[in-house]
Amino acid sequence: VVNDVLYLMPEVVRREVLAACVDRLTPDGVLVVKEIDDHPRWKYEVNHLQELVATKVLRYTEGDLVEVVPMQHFADQLEDLGLATKVEAIDRWYPHAHAILTARRR
C-alpha cells in the first residue's frame, strides 16, 4: 500500500518507489496506491492549497515538493511494468479528489 506520499516526491523517486513495489509484489499480490487525483479541478485546488499550508506554513507534512500527478500517469507506469491496473475515484462527499489505484500481475 502506498498512501498519499507520491505527491511529495520528485518524478524520478516516484518511479523508483513504484518499481520497487512491483519488484516485491508476489505473483498473486495486489499493489494499492491511494493518492489525490487532479480532477475535478476544484477539488484539486482545495487539496493543493491545503498541502501547501501543510508543507510550507505549518510544516506538519514533510516535503519540499507538492506535485499532484494524475492517477492515470501512475497506472500507465505500472502497466509499462507489466501490471493490469484499475483507477477509481473515491471522493464522493469529500472536498478532495481522493482516488485509488489497484494493480495486479497479468
Number of strands: 4
Q: Give the structural class.
A: alpha+beta
Total helical elements:
3
Q: Estimate percent helicity.
A: 25-40%
| Quaternary | single chain
Quick synopsis:
This protein has 106 residues and is α+β, with helices and mostly antiparallel strands. It has helices at 11-24, 41-57, 71-80; strands at residues 2-3, 30-36, 83-89, 98-105.
Report on the structure:
With 106 residues, the protein is of the alpha+beta class. Helix content is 39%, strand content 23%. It is built from three helices and four strands. It has a four-stranded mixed beta sheet, with helices on one face. The longest helix is centred in the middle third of the chain and has 17 residues. The radius of gyration is 14 Å and the shape is globular.
In terms of topology, how is this protein built?
Layout: E1 2-3, H1 11-24, E2 30-36, H2 41-57, H3 71-80, E3 83-89, E4 98-105
Parallel strand pairs: 1-2
Antiparallel strand pairs: 2-4, 3-4
Key descriptive features of the protein:
106 residues, globular, 23% strand, alpha+beta
